[in-house]
């Protein structure tokens, strides 16, 4: 939704065809055992020269947009290691997933990281092969390449042997759960590969101290390995307790909150008096978004240790989260402040308003109102499950923007989706408790495996993650206020957002061009508000792509093809059924209309109105049933002009026409008079310009019917809240301009178009 989809861009299609041809050529070798395999030493030598060249190239070429190819999907291994048989490299067959087997491999080179972490590995026969690992984490505490160190030993479950893009033969591992790194004392490691573990190393205290050193030095993952080893050799309850406490801290730092909680959580039962245990359990619960449990643990902690200042701070933070989660009580001002930093990730909870997930006929599941809701009401204010920031600052080396190409679905996106796949894979791998919420999301026709844990390890399917993202990802502006204030030129330039977010609850909202809700963003928070009054039981919809009257029915559907459905809303239905000659007539009238506005001696307003009346006649169905998308924009132009000419009555007339074209029904006490008190009986399509329209009405009424100002202002605020997410900043943005227009003669239309943050 509003991402930069380049699937139909020529360069992308060419790239795609080249890759497809390479895949087809490779598939011809399926099942063959290559006879021209290079020796291990030859592979190592070639790799090392490439390694040096690539390092130099990467240092020079930081700013290029990288390409990421999603290979044809295959399932992760769900076999227990005990049920797999060992396989030697010489037995590998090309383009084959060796189901029922595993390979035991030792690393022979340093790792090279591009989109995958690559190195040369050997088996016990001293045969070598290239190993490519995808979706490896790349964060502050452990680079993906850290595991791939010289002499480390791993098991690749059900290995996939293939011809790589450089023509070499190699093993490709897309699923993080398909690779198991063995600890140095693992019995599976052949004796000839095993470094001797000394008696000293078998001492729990020594291992713990070494773990502490690693933790202090920032080698957090290594610290976890030492603590885990220490626990194996620990003989006393108290010793294990300390080691677990330390491992809990290390896991917290690694973002492995489930594990951190498991170690620290035990402390709430068996080590009732452990301050650190309580604290680390609370921290883990906070990061997992389990704020009520976090609150309860902090209360227990403070009952035992009333002077713990850190716990008091945490408690106050958690109480804020609970107010957000339970009552939708958000401080938007604080959120804007936090959204100024990079990346704009906010410390906020998710609020689920009066909505719930239910079956939606013909559309899978959808989000429905649980009670009557008014336009502007908050339905969701949701923290992203995953959020990948694309720093658009010129030449920024940390920008994660790449071209993601899915060879199976024929789709290409520019943005941060490739990183989002890794982020989500890693998040679930580290925190299996978070898996069900994500794996329940819509993923088209992809058939995932049913097991989620094998040998105690979570099974994470990279291809399921990719398909789920492609159906549910949102392109995100830093804030919707920022994009609301864009000039029309900037708006035209922006094809789609490169920053993207995944929001579990908002993902259940189905599309309609004639939608009744709108989403907005403040950093990694998505705000969904009703844009119409919705009776209980109404399905909430928003548009995946903004409806556009200038494109054909076929093009509209093409824009939605990624989601695998055809939109059958009233706007699309009418677009489809309107006869070609009617469309041609409408287009010709619109062309004349543009001419009337661009008249050299100033706009010919009378002609413009005549033409607009003629265009209205080309619609056979009332705007209340099907919004008239070609009309609101020119009527808004007229409203701006009339207001700037101090022809307020005309501005009110045309302003109301803007709203009527969008499907609004405005009920007046005296239907024959535009100066009669009114109210919105039915809200129409909520385009951003609805806010400006109401502000025009507000300022125009100030001159001709001041008693109606308040109402127009109130509606402007509701529209603003729906479009931007909140109305705390309304006064600063529009309120000020409206006053300047009313009392200082400022041209409102001009001022609105030149507003900035
Ligand atoms: C973001 S998900 C929305 C939730 C989804 N319906 C579910 O069951 O989880 C997008 C998918 O919903 C379905 N969908 C959304 N809007 C639709 C519509 N107007 N008509 C039919 N299917 C729709 C499509 O299958 C689409 O790929």
TrEMBL record:
The SET domain, residue ranges: 353-545
Gene3D superfamilies in UniProt: SET domain (2.170.270.10), Tetratricopeptide repeat domain (1.25.40.10)
InterPro entries documented for this protein: Gramillin-biosynth_MTr (IPR053209), SET_dom (IPR001214), SET_dom_sf (IPR046341), TPR-like_helical_dom_sf (IPR011990)
SMART domains: SET
Pfam families: SET
Source superkingdom: Eukaryota
PANTHER family the UniProt entry points to: TPR DOMAIN PROTEIN (AFU_ORTHOLOGUE AFUA_5G12710)
Protein name: SET domain-containing protein
Organism the protein comes from: Lepraria finkii
């Amino acid at each position: 939704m509003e991402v930069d989809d380049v699937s139909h861009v020529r360069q992308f299609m060419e790239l795609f065809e080249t890759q497809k041809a390479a895949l087809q050529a490779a598939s011809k070798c399926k099942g063959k055992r290559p006879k021209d395999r290079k020796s291990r030493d030859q592979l190592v030598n070639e790799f090392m020269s490439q390694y040096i060249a690539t390092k130099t190239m990467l240092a020079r070429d930081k700013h290029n947009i990288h390409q990421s190819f999603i290979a044809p999907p295959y399932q992760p291994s769900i076999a227990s290691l005990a049920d797999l048989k060992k396989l030697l490299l010489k037995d590998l067959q090309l383009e084959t997933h060796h189901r029922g087997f595993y390979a035991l491999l030792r690393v022979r080179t340093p790792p090279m990281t591009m989109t995958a972490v690559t190195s040369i590995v050997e088996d016990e026969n001293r045969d070598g092969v290239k190993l490519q690992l995808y979706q490896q984490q790349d964060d502050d505490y452990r680079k993906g390449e850290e595991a791939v160190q010289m002499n480390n030993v791993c098991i690749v479950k059900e290995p996939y042997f293939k011809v790589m893009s450089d023509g070499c033969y190699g093993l490709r591992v897309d699923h993080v759960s398909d690779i198991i790194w063995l600890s140095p004392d693992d019995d599976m490691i052949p004796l000839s590969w095993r470094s001797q573990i000394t008696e000293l190393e078998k001492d729990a205290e020594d291992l713990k101290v070494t773990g502490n050193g690693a933790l202090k030095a920032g080698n957090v993952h290594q610290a976890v390995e030492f603590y885990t080893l220490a626990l194996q050799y620990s003989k006393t309850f108290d010793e294990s307790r300390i080691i677990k406490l330390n491992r809990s801290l290390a896991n917290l730092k690694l973002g492995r909150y489930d594990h951190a909680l498991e170690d620290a959580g035990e402390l709430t039962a068996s080590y009732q008096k452990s301050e650190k245990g309580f604290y680390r359990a609370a921290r883990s619960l906070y990061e997992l978004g389990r704020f009520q449990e976090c609150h309860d643990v902090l209360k227990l902690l403070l009952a035992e240790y009333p002077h713990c200042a850190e716990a008091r701070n945490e408690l106050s933070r958690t109480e804020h989260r609970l107010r957000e989660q339970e009552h939708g009580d958000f401080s938007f001002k604080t959120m804007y402040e936090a959204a100024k930093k990079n990346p704009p990730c906010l410390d906020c909870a998710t609020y689920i308003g009066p909505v719930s997930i239910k079956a939606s006929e013909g559309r899978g599941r959808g989000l429905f109102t649980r009670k009557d809701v008014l336009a502007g009401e908050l339905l969701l204010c949701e923290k992203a499950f995953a959020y990948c920031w694309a720093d658009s600052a010129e030449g920024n080396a940390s920008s994660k923007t790449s071209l993601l190409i899915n060879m199976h679905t024929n789709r290409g996106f520019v943005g941060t989706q490739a990183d989002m796949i890794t982020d989500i894979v890693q998040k679930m791998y580290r925190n299996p408790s978070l898996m069900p919420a994500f794996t329940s999301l819509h993923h088209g026709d992809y058939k995932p495996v049913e097991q989620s844990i094998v040998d105690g390890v979570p099974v994470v399917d990279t291809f399921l993650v990719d398909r789920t993202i492609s159906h549910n990802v949102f392109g995100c502006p830093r804030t919707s206020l920022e994009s609301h204030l864009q000039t029309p030129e900037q708006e035209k330039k922006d094809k789609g957002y490169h920053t993207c977010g995944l929001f579990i609850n908002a993902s259940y909202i189905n599309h309609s061009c004639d939608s009744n809700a709108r989403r907005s963003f403040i950093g990694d928070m998505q705000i969904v508000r009703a844009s119409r009054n919705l009776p209980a039981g109404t399905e909430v919809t928003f548009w995946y792509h903004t409806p556009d009257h200038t494109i054909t029915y076929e093009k509209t559907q093409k824009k939605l093809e990624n989601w695998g459905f055809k939109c059958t809303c009233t706007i699309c239905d009418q677009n489809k059924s309107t006869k070609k000659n009617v469309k041609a007539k409408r287009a010709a009238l619109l062309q004349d209309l543009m001419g009337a506005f661009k008249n050299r001696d100033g706009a010919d307003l009378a002609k413009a109105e005549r033409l607009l009346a003629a265009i209205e006649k080309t619609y056979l169905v009332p705007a209340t049933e099907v919004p008239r998308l070609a009309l609101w924009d020119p009527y808004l132009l007229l409203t701006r002009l009339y207001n700037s000419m101090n022809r307020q009555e005309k501005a009110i007339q045309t302003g109301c026409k803007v709203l009527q074209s969008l499907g609004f029904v405005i009920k007046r006490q005296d239907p024959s008079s535009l100066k009669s008190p009114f109210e919105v009986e039915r809200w129409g399509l909520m385009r951003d310009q609805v806010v400006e329209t109401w502000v025009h009405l507000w300022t125009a009424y100030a001159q001709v019917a001041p008693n109606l100002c308040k109402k127009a202002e109130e509606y402007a605020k509701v529209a603003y809240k729906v479009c931007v997410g909140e109305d705390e900043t309304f006064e600063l943005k529009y309120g000020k301009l409206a006053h300047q227009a009313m009392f200082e003669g400022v041209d409102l239309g001009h001022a609105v178009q030149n507003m900035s943050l």
